[in-house]
Amino acid sequence: MATKKTLPPVKMRNKAKLLDDLPIQSVPIDSIQLPASQPRHYFDPDKMTNLVESVRSFGVLEPLLVRPLSGGQFELIAGERRLRAAGEVGLELVPVVSKDFTDTEALQVSLLENLQREDLNPVEETEGVLDLLAITLDADRESVISLLHRSKNARVRGRELNHNVMVQLEAVEKTLTQLGKFSVDSFRSNRLPLLALPKDILESLRQGKLEYTKAIAISRIKDEAQRAELLQEAIVENLSLVQIRSKARSLNSQQTLTRQSKVLDRYAQIGKRLRNGTLLNDAAKRKQVSDLLGELEQLLEGK
């Protein structure tokens, strides 16, 4: 992992401070383009509808944050929902505050602004934090995840981390402290597992159809078809966490019994074939069967 000098933190607890002394100007909506890298991918349709109606009635009340490009164009840094709503309403001009940012600074500010939203779903929040940490360390998501796991493994095994890793961890801790949402341990143990969820559960969580705790409970169902069925049931019927956990335990117990039954049926079929066949007439094969039965007896006795 790279150990380059980290970027200076951008504090976003009060976005107004970032925009102090910057004039608000009106620019054509078609002069604003979305960035290549977008921190947010899902917008709740009901909330977007409400925002569109608000913009239709009152206009865009909070200016968009943009950075200037060549030819009178701008790149959006923060305010994509407002921009989309303004476009749907048919506004020709929107209020903006323009500030020069490098590519890296623009992404960093966009991530930080996005992470302060109260309606951000846990998947996008987790991905946003990882991207922010990646910028801080000048690395990628996978390297950040590896760093967090290495720090835990070293602590569990009582091993010391080298100087470079310690510096990186300090940078991670500082960034998370500024966000005010996670510690290193809580982010690693409570949020990273989200990214390993089955795709259908992950997408439902991303779209706000399912709470985080319910998603984790459903993911523990071993059978894929049963898991998908419970996922849909939980969404349609708005099952409680207690109901989901109860159903998950029942499904997993049934699955275990089914597997046990299949093994016993297979054993019975093998015994029937041995009795009806001529395999045991061959001394060498009879010895092989006897040896295998001996291994099975040892397994049953726990040896």
**Helix/strand order, N-terminal first:** HEEHEEHEHHHHHHHHHH
Rg value: 28 Å
Structural class: alpha/beta
Through-space gap between termini = 46 Å
Strand content: 5-15%
Largest sheet: 5 strands, mixed
Structural shape: elongated
Which residue ranges are poorly predicted, with pLDDT under 50 across at least 5 consecutive positions? 1-16
Strand order of the largest sheet: 1-5-3-4-2
What's the helix count?
A: 13
Mean pLDDT rating:
84
Give helix % range.
55-70%
The tally of beta strands, per DSSP, is 5
Structure, explained:
The N terminus is likely disordered. This protein is 60% helix and 8% strand. Strands 1-5-3-4-2 form a five-stranded mixed β-sheet. It contains 13 helices and five strands. The chain is elongated. α9 packs antiparallel against α10 and α11 runs antiparallel to α12. It is α/β, with parallel strands linked by helices.
Question: What topology does this entry show?
Answer:
Layout: H1 15-18, E1 24-28, E2 32-33, H2 45-58, E3 64-68, E4 74-78, H3 80-89, E5 93-98, H4 103-115, H5 122-137, H6 141-156, H7 163-179, H8 184-191, H9 199-206, H10 212-219, H11 224-237, H12 241-276, H13 283-300
Parallel strand pairs: 2-4, 3-5
Antiparallel strand pairs: 1-5, 3-4
Helix pairs in contact: 2-3, 4-5, 5-6, 5-7, 9-10, 10-11, 10-12, 11-12
InterPro entries: Chromosome_partition/occlusion, HTH_ParB/Spo0J, ParB/RepB/Spo0J, ParB/Sulfiredoxin_sf, ParB_N
Pfam families: HTH_ParB, ParB_N
Domain ParB-like N-terminal: 25-115
